Amino acid sequence: MEGNEKLYFHGGMLGAWLPMVTFVIVMVTAAMTGHISLTVFAAGAFVAICVGFLLSKNKKAFDAAVIDGVGDHMLATMTVAFLMAGILSQLLRQSGLIQGLIWLSSQMHLNANFLPLITFITCVLISTACGTTGGTCAAVTPIMVPLAVSMGCNPGIIVGAIMSGSIFGDNLAPISDTTIASAMTQETDVSSVVRTRLPYSIISGVAASLLYIYFGFKTLNTETVMNQVDASKAPSLALLILPVIMAVLMTKGVGLVSTMLICNMLGIILNLALGLIPFSTMVSADGPVVAGISGMSGLILFCIVLFAVLEITKRSGAFDSLINGIHKKCDTPQKAELACCGMTIFGMIAIAASTANIIIVGPFVRQLTKKFNIARTRGANIADGLSTAFGGIVPYNSSFLLCMSLAMASGAVASSFSFKEVLPYCFHSYGLIILYVGSAITGIGRKFEKQGE
Description:
Distance between the termini: 27 Å
Largest sheet: none
Number of helices: 21
Structural class: mainly alpha
Number of strands: 0
């Protein structure tokens, strides 16, 4: 079939790799200059496709490769899942759930020493419910940083707690784009991925909580946390039932799309019934449905052009050549998993975008784990766990930059405040790195599939 015809490039294997190399160079350059955006990355993929077109010897075969990449079944599944997740995330956020959770945490009436823990737990709840790092940072930072600093807390600890809590849900939530991407690239289902990575998240989360308590008690101010937040959003807490329903449905074997559709419809009904989102807003251009779809447009566009680049590289044989080279070096499951860790970490340092990194390294991880019949969920968890963990400590990651910018804009921190004051307190990121790299070295948690599964 013409659609499966091998691509040949001028310059041989070097020419075959130039589109992907071009793509990586554009992403690294964008990241280093502070232009971390999926739209910019998509433009880089377009440039890579242009390079591939110019170097390809058979233009018809090249056309077929691009079309096959864009028409990939995995891409179609991810697109639908991203759209459903975007709508659900907006339904939760526009309901006022974020403000409701912050209000709930303020009712604990603990002293200032517990503010880092409260901040971390608040962000854990929000990010797990909404599946977003940036959204959690944007919601919590303007409120918790000024409140905590005014009560004598170290702003570095608070921002570190915000980043740690934000990546908790990004790594674990079923509606998180990283969770969906890691499951799809490893050819497994979201519910299995979430279930198997839960122990890692809990262990790291508990350790981070204890550390936030310990370092929180180093502050001298022991005033109680006053109710300084809006209590009118308390009814929005009813929407916490949606993540519970989602978990139950997935456990029962209901498909991801069907599960999200059910939760989206219930979310619309609850928001309207409780008066959290008026009907006029629900159907407006700024409402949760339209905003949820448009909010995912950049990610979907990036995926479309990226899959075209990946198919070009795969069709040329360059992908198989690299995998075979790595395979020769990886003669044990341990070495294979460590190679997966290394590729994931290198990708995050280079481009500092968790979802994009998972989509790029995912196929490589899948090939390595498949060689030794390592469970698909294992590869998904390594790629997602390390991608999100480094997303919480790489200073030029978009969410990290957003959190720092909001902290500075609040006027509560000194003009000299920098990421160096935050990095020592990103405990959940360090916990995930230690757990996943440690498990790859020791083999703890490694499971195997039967041949052909």
